[in-house]
Design brief:
The chain is an alpha/beta fold. The protein contains 11 helices and 12 strands. The strands form 2 sheets. It has an 8-stranded parallel β-barrel, surrounded by 7 helices. The structure holds ligand PBG.
Length: 331
């Protein structure tokens, strides 16, 4: 074994000196991630019954619209600051008509949440996949999703959400020009203060599996690769983000989270616009499953994954763990 003395270059520095004492480690600590930066997804279904568990996502439930007011009050008192609302409608059709109804499921949920917890920031998913018979993110013609017809529906859906009081709409269908069309429609309807949280770089990911059970939105045939990004296309992702920024997106989101930290980091260098990351259902399910199997310490692993998303560049993080984090940090 070569002794240190005989090493060709010997640094005088010992980096571990700065790590030895907890208090000294804090001198150079990065920012801790506040609950204020977390957004919690909630699934809302029709009716007034008790919450239904989602088998693929332990701890995640579908709430009935009749009880979402209670939930809103509770989570606000637990310290959560923002939610992302997904509708899980009973009826589906070819055009996703339920998505654009002014008093549909999600508009009702928004009104109830805003009445019960006026300080909660409410964002809503804007996509047709849970509302169309065949589970695609848009209106299908033949075996293809018709981009421009879909964009018209998404714009109507966004206006219905804004009218009900949504603070942000979050288009996730990956249609071309969806952000610009939604911005125009919102402005024309007088909703100039409603923001757009754009799923800008959304990849065609295997990690959405459990979500599709929660939202009942799995495609009946084919897959989403005709509109979502190929996982190996970094430059295309940055191009999508630039396009959404140009169309007026207020926040640019990357999704999924951990498998795409490089995309976030590159976007952080390239764009000054606020960035979000979505820690998706499959990421949540993996951590839960590993913790349940006793393979890792859940809290530590969750905190580490959230810090990683923030460190890579996300200002805002959408996570199914948001509520648990709020609960355990207290107020
Ligand atoms: C709707 C939508 C999806 C997710 C968010 N919005 C599913 C999909 O594109 O298939 C995934 C969220 C998650 O996995 O947690 N298009």
């Amino acid at each position: 074994m070569a002794s240190l003395d005989r090493a060709p270059v010997r640094s005088r520095l010992r980096l571990r000196r700065m790590r030895r004492l907890a208090a000294v480690r804090r001198w150079t600590a990065g920012p801790t991630v506040d609950v204020e930066r977390l957004m919690w997804p909630i699934f809302v279904r029709p009716g007034a019954g008790a919450p239904e568990p989602v088998a693929a996502l332990p701890g995640v439930e579908r709430y009935s619209v009749g009880r979402v007011d209670r939930l809103a009050r509770t989570i606000q008192s637990e310290g959560l600051r923002s939610v992302l609302v997904f509708g899980v409608p009973r009826r589906k059709d070819d055009l996703g008509s339920g998505a654009v109804a002014p008093n549909g499921l999600v508009p009702q949920a928004i009104r109830a949440i805003k009445r019960a917890a006026p300080d909660l920031v409410v964002a809503t998913d804007v996509c047709l996949c849970a509302y169309t018979r065949y589970g695609h993110c848009g209106v299908v013609r033949g075996r293809e999703v018709d981009n421009d017809r879909t964009v018209e529906q998404l714009a109507r859906m966004a206006v219905a959400h804004a009218r009900a009081g949504a603070d942000f709409v979050a288009p996730s269908a990956m249609m071309d020009h969806q952000v610009g069309a939604i911005r125009d429609a919102l402005d024309r309807a007088g909703h100039t203060s409603t923001g757009i949280l754009a799923y800008a770089a959304k990849f065609a990911s295997a990690f959405y599996g459990p979500f599709r059970e929660a939202a009942d939105s799995a495609p009946a045939w084919g897959d989403r690769r005709g509109y979502q990004l190929p996982p190996d296309h970094l430059r295309a992702a940055l191009e999508e983000m630039a396009e959404d920024a140009a169309e007026g997106a207020d926040v640019l989101m990357v999704k999924p989270g951990l498998p795409y930290l490089d995309v976030l980091a590159r976007a952080r260098e390239r764009f000054d616009r606020p960035l979000a990351a979505y820690q998706v259902s499959g990421e949540y399910a993996m951590l839960k499953a590993a913790a349940r199997a006793g393979a890792l310490d859940e809290r530590a692993a969750v905190d580490e994954s959230i810090v990683a998303l923030h460190r890579a560049g996300a200002d805002l993080i959408v996570s199914y763990f948001a509520r648990e984090i709020a609960q355990r940090r207290g107020r």
